[in-house]
Protein: Aldehyde dehydrogenase
Organism: Dioscorea cayennensis subsp. rotundata
Amino acid sequence: MGVEMEENRGAFDGHRAAELMVELREAFGSGRTRSYEWRVAQLKALFRMIDEKEAEIMAALYSDLAKPELEAFLHEVSLTRSACQLALKELKRWMKPEKVSSSITTFPSSSEIVSEPLGVVLIISAWNYPFILSLDPVIGAIAAGNAVVLKPSEVAPATASFFARTLPAYLDSSAIRVVEGAVSETTALLEQKWDKILYTGNSKVGRIVMAAAAKHLTPVVLELGGKSPVVVDSNVNLEVAVKRIIVGKWGCNNGQACISPDYIITTKSFAPKLVEALKSTLEKFYGEDPLESKDLSRIVNSNHFARLTRLLDEDKVYGKIIYGGQRDEKKLKIAPTLLFDVPHDSLIMKEEIFGPILPIITVDKVEESFDIINSRTKPLAAYLFTKDKILEEKFVNNVSSGGMLINDVALHLANPNLPFGGVGESGIGAYHGKFSFDAFSHKKAVLHRSFGGEAPARYPPYTLKKQRILKALLGGDIISLVLALLGWPRS
């Protein structure tokens, strides 16, 4: 049954969600999704869809976010295609049971860890990268052999509509479904008992998802956000550092990215050089009137435009603008904006910015930045620019964050061999590459024994000799074991 048929049946409510769950449980229960052949067929179909529908995907991303074509291709289409390729290439190896050693207490035996699908999983996606944040976890869920429901974000309606319209034409819609909608549809879905839920978004909704999951003891992966800091030491290649900070902030959906730099910390003495370099490079990249630049995404909607305006217009903040600040409410455009030495108790330093505004705060010594970062909730990403290896080591060892990158911004996301996820307020669990497969798999412990190798000491009656044998065996005391077997107590 395709998604189109579901839409014709009326509003998606709790009753429809329960029906959907029954259908998916039946599909998973048939065992079809467990086979290597089914998984590969779905992944190949997804890969083909990306190639055949690339123009439609790009058009949807432009409609939702005015995302520049190159940015949309690099950050969404290309990375999703690569995730699909990697899963196809590695799936047999991922599915293969992992042999592990056995212990003396189970001798003779063999042991392995078997990856089995969890069952029926729910993926609730986000609007800022609506294509990759939907399909990347779907790829992992399919690779792991699950039945899947994708709930794309209603804030990116063109991409959500693309999924609802297109995925059923490529994938097995008896086991993989798309549900469009907003709060009421998401609520109806969350009332069901899932085998895992992956949610990407903010911590407020993350708490709602986790509370709903707790009612059914459903495990969750929460990909949230937070205020990701950038520490800039004076010992840097300033030209390179500034270009990388700018492309990691404004070149990532105009700051509307969960791993986007949220604020900069630098020393008072180095700040003037850094500020001037940021200003000149921003003008070089986006022109004298950045509101007309075709290389910047727009703010996603009027609600987020109003939210960002409220942050900028706070009395404590407005006078701190040192670059940018221009806005066009009709076009939903806000220029790249730099703030200098904003108060720590301002809203913009308390809330995740998720937009084209970048505060710069200063310290006397760069090491003081560690205490500032650690005094806040743990961020999804933390960045350091320095040539000082000792400072780099201290940063890695003393700052807690979901991920970390030295001398660049956001690129750790592009390495499928690194887990992507948060810690504390910035999230629970991780995915990407094999980590996606693992996120949607149960790691089942399996011990194999034959009928040989009996140990009489296991069985009653529990004599003193048996106790001595077992204690020596479990304690790894070979001399005591030999003495116990001979019936000689060790003094």
The CA atoms of residues 281 and 339 lie 16 Å apart. Residues 3-224+433-443 form a domain with the Aldehyde Dehydrogenase; Chain A, domain 1 fold (CATH 3.40.605.10).
